[in-house]
């Protein structure tokens, strides 16, 4: 019998990616997809690659809680999950809830699901907080070196504008972004706090948004306590992520254009400054996939006992290791 999954906030960028992933899963089926704006419309008119018969519904908090889906994924803007979760806590507390927003990333009662770094701590929690997209890139880029740092890593992040969601702002306005790079929230971005908390070491994060639609480049400057070599640093990353199909250690600094639409993150560069104590690492990932929907699918698979990569079609047939890649 298939497990049923409902998606709230299903009109959005991440909701659409999740619809595709859940619909292709052999052990899951969509119970409902909720959107106020698209209520009544066939999902297949809005989500390329989905050819099922489901229609969007405008479900109240009570409807969602009463639906009885085995899992509910919240793809709502930040600050909108509380009433829904309260309703589920009362009506169907055993429901698995995966929240894509930032609302529960600082809540110790929720499991923080960045599988490559945290799956060992999963103890059957029914409340799962999905990491932020930039936070995923920073955490993956810094984690292998976090014990040998001499100073807070400085993280220069550039996101495609799908990262800013669908509510109109300067940060998702293609006209304002044309020929442009837009810096914002240069200190104290919520993902700076999220990564600092999860790593246990402070990071400094400077986000920017660029004219491309999807994909993040995270260039991280790290100071080491002891001098090292490029080979040793690269080997440390390769060993840290050995056996992780969704985190690939590559030789050169990866390009964001190569990661759009792909489920995995890439980490490379490993440029060492003279003296051997300053290293620059570059991570790329698709903010809507490894930064959101793919990670949610890994977490759903974990929660329901499926292989973590079920319905995550990697390695994709097009990918071949380049010279020097691990
Ligand atoms: N975009 C990204 O790269 C990433 C996003 N996230 C997080 O995931 C969540 C979803 O992001 P994204 O898909 O980009 O967002 P979108 O802006 O694209 O979509 C938001 C969805 O929520 C619904 N919605 C909007 N406002 C409300 C409201 N007040 N009450 C109920 N429903 C509402 C919208 O549908 P309707 O108005 O029709 O109901 C829509 O389906 C956010 O919390 C975001 O921060 C996390 C990682 C990456
Ligand atoms: C380009 C852009 O605006 N990006 C968003 C991050 C998207 C994301 O992951 O945000 P959550 O933490 O809310 O899940 C931002 O900086 O707020």
Automatic annotation (TrEMBL):
Q: What is its main location?
A: cytoplasm
Give the record's pathway. Amino-acid biosynthesis; L-arginine biosynthesis; N(2)-acetyl-L-ornithine from L-glutamate: step 3/4
One Gene Ontology cellular component = cytoplasm
| Pfam families noted in UniProt | Semialdhyde_dh, Semialdhyde_dhC_1
Catalyzed reactions: N-acetyl-L-glutamate 5-semialdehyde + phosphate + NADP(+) = N-acetyl-L-glutamyl 5-phosphate + NADPH + H(+)
- Annotated compartments: Cytoplasm
Could you name the domain of life of the organism this protein comes from?
Bacteria
GO biological process annotations for this chain's record? L-arginine biosynthetic process
> Keyword annotations for this protein?
Amino-acid biosynthesis, Arginine biosynthesis, Cytoplasm, NADP, Oxidoreductase
Please tell me which top-level EC class this enzyme sits in: oxidoreductase
What the entry lists under InterPro entries is as follows:
AGPR, AGPR_AS, AGPR_dimerisation_dom, AGPR_type-1, NAD(P)-bd_dom_sf, Semialdehyde_DH_NAD-bd
Q: What Gene3D superfamilies does the record point to? A: Dihydrodipicolinate Reductase, domain 2 (3.30.360.10), NAD(P)-binding Rossmann-like Domain (3.40.50.720)
The terms under GO molecular function for this entry are: N-acetyl-gamma-glutamyl-phosphate reductase activity; NAD binding; NADP+ binding
Q: Which residue ranges does the record assign to the Semialdehyde dehydrogenase NAD-binding domain?
A: 4-125
Active site (record annotation)? 133
Q: What is its EC number?
A: 1.2.1.38
Q: Name the job this protein performs.
A: Catalyzes the NADPH-dependent reduction of N-acetyl-5-glutamyl phosphate to yield N-acetyl-L-glutamate 5-semialdehyde.
Name the HAMAP family for this protein. Answer: ArgC_type1
Family, per entry: Belongs to the NAGSA dehydrogenase family. Type 1 subfamily.
The protein here is known as N-acetyl-gamma-glutamyl-phosphate reductase
